[in-house]
Design brief:
With 602 residues, this protein is an alpha/beta fold. Helix 12 crosses helix 14 and helix 20 runs antiparallel to helix 21. The longest helix is centred in the N-terminal third of the chain and has 22 residues. It is elongated, with a radius of gyration of 33 Å. The termini are far apart. About 1% of the residues have low confidence.
């Protein structure tokens, strides 16, 4: 049995509290769990029972119970709803408990101002219908009848045995002088606090918890483990002061959005960012433990840290040093131009590489060898050759083209040397592929879309004093509904001005507007604002967006300004030579990441 008076956090079985008395203070509302919450709890425990491949010590964990000692009773500061639900389930299973565990009592619940609720709970097996006489009776009786119905339905289909369910709730099998429970059971996170520790009374503690000022996140639970370490009082204050200083310094750095965005994709958002480091340490050390942890469990990381400290007897100092070591490594990568860009690409591309695997792969490698390893990994993930890159198609290879152009922007930024690629902008703005010269306007399906395109083209031709096109556009705009055939004929005439590349003999070439040499990356918002338009209008819009502070990816800006083209004599037509120069720039910039052309064995 666990010593519930021990300071700090513990994982305890339900059996550990069966002899205890709990007090619900007046400032807490009564029991309010609905049918859905009760059924969810029953189903979760049932799924745990059904798992036939549980390891020794694997358990189902309930949310924390926060308590403070009041003479011989435990005052429940937080967790009343789940504690009461467990009480009602045990009341329903009382006959099975008398047969299976005849010597075990049932913990008691007392209410400061609602003593009748305690009496109602003790006799709850006798109810046959929902009691509407007061709010407590209503919710308590509804919970009991929900439990009764759930068991009866499961038993009707022979899905469950009450004895097995009860056994999972309260059995224990403590080994190693009560340190390790190897039973497959249900447990609480037991969190005793005191008015002295918190600097206030239990009512104030309750208020803080329920206002979120004491969030029971993995980070806060692990912090409690660290700060309640068993040591001499003379050393404890100095240790806690140092830990608090280092903890805050790490958390402050992780709040740097550039640093955080470098390491994390959009979905990896944490309330307390230091949890990110705890996750890495937990993942590295979990194999030391003789237990299976469910990654989707909210307290996955805390369970591992708790077991490392109490089962493996790892020292708090050694675990904290591991946290700091990971932080130092990640900070070093962030400060190094090549590490930052190469690792950032792997994290944010579609290669599904986790920072934990990169850390593991870096172990024991010299700096030059690790950078080569990163480049080889990127090359492998791209899986493209100089020959095949030009055959990639917008419709068939969109993801691969996106990765290549993403890397093109990152490596170009890296080689610039004095700027860092903004991964935070990439996350927030959801970049997508944009055609440099549009695929004509056949994708514009509505009259409104066509009118918007015509207005933009009218403005462009007005600026260059092309009266013929302005007249044709005005004629269409005055129609009540734009004639589709007339619109397409006009667009064909307009697009032919900007997309009829010729070879050396002067003959027109057939080109693919969906190949990589006609694609660039842009934020989804800016992408939609460019619409399906001709090159000079898109170019003007890119310049306008850039002047207004929109972030235009480096290579996208370069391509619309014809930075990669040689002997530029005009800026309004996107020619075949421009496309060839752009593709050549992509190949040259990414030469370390693209397989060389083969010569058919010659």
């Amino acid at each position: 049995m666990k010593n519930l008076d021990t300071a700090g956090l513990q994982l305890i079985s339900i059996a550990d509290i069966l002899t205890e008395s709990f007090f619900i203070p007046s400032y807490q509302r009564g029991y309010r769990w609905g049918e859905r919450q009760v059924i969810d709890l029953l189903n979760d425990i049932f799924e745990f029972i059904k798992n036939e491949h549980k390891d020794a010590g694997e358990f189902y964990c309930l949310q924390p119970i926060v308590v403070t000692k009041k003479e011989a009773q435990w005052c429940v500061i937080d967790g009343q709803q789940r504690l009461t639900t467990i009480y009602i389930i045990l009341k329903f299973l009382e006959n099975a408990k008398k047969a299976l565990f005849p010597m075990l009592p049932l913990f008691s619940l007392f209410y400061e101002t609602r003593d009748s609720s305690r009496e109602f709970l003790e006799k709850i097996q006798q109810i046959v219908d929902i009691d509407y006489t007061n709010a407590d009776y209503y919710h308590l009786s509804r919970a009991y009848l929900t439990i009764k119905k759930w068991f009866e339905e499961k038993e009707q289909h022979q899905e469950i045995n009450r004895v097995d369910f009860l056994s999972t709730l309260i059995k224990t099998d403590y080994r190693n002088n009560g340190e390790i429970d190897i039973a497959n059971n249900v447990r609480f996170i037991w969190y005793p606090v005191s008015a002295h520790d918190e600097g206030s009374d239990d009512k104030e503690i309750f208020r803080k918890i329920n206002m979120g000022k004491i969030p029971l996140t993995n980070a806060e639970l692990i912090k409690a483990l660290f700060f309640t370490a068993d040591m001499e009082e003379a050393e404890k204050e100095k240790y806690q002061s140092r830990l608090a200083y280092e903890w805050n310094a790490i958390e402050d750095t992780l709040q740097n959005e550039d640093f955080w965005s470098f390491l994390n994709k959009a979905e990896n958002q944490k309330n307390t960012r230091i949890e990110f480091l705890f996750d890495l340490v937990a993942e590295k050390n979990k194999n030391k433990l003789n237990a299976v942890y469910r990654k989707n469990d909210e307290y996955y990381t805390f369970y591992i840290f708790n077991d490392l400290l109490h089962q493996q007897k790892e020292s708090i100092d050694s675990l904290w040093e591991e946290v700091k070591k990971y932080f130092r490594i990640l900070r070093e990568w962030f400060d190094d131009n090549e590490y930052y860009h190469l690792i950032g690409y792997l994290i944010h591309s579609d290669s599904d590489v986790a920072i934990s695997s990169i850390l593991k792969g870096s172990k024991g490698l010299k700096k030059a060898d690790f950078k080569k390893c990163l480049k080889d990994h990127i090359k492998s993930s791209l899986n493209i050759t100089e020959e095949s890159i030009q055959d990639l198609n917008y419709y068939d290879n969109r993801k691969q083209i996106g990765n290549i152009l993403f890397l093109f922007n990152i490596v170009s930024t890296m080689k610039a040397g004095n700027i860092y690629f903004p991964f935070g902008r990439y996350i927030d703005e959801k970049w997508s592929l944009e055609h440099i010269h549009a695929q004509k306007s056949e994708e514009l399906k509505t009259d409104k879309q066509r009118r918007l395109l015509l207005e933009e083209q009218k403005n462009y031709y007005g600026k260059i004093n092309d009266a013929a096109f302005v007249t044709q556009i005005n004629d269409l705009l005055t129609e009540k509904e734009i004639d589709k055939e007339k619109f397409e004929n006009l667009q064909n005439a307009i697009f032919s001005q900007f997309s009829a590349p010729q070879d050396a003999t002067g003959e027109n070439l057939t080109i693919d507007n969906n190949s990589i040499d006609n694609l660039a990356l842009l934020s989804s918002r800016d992408n939609s604002s460019l619409s399906n338009n001709i090159f000079p209008i898109k170019r003007d819009k890119i310049i306008e967006l850039d002047s207004k502070g929109s972030f235009i990816p480096l290579c996208t800006k370069n391509v619309f300004l014809k930075y990669y083209s040689n002997d530029v004599t005009q800026n309004v037509i996107w020619t075949q030579k421009d496309r060839e120069a752009y593709l050549s720039a992509i190949k040259n910039t990414l030469c370390e990441y693209i397989e060389k052309e083969t010569n058919n064995g010659q």
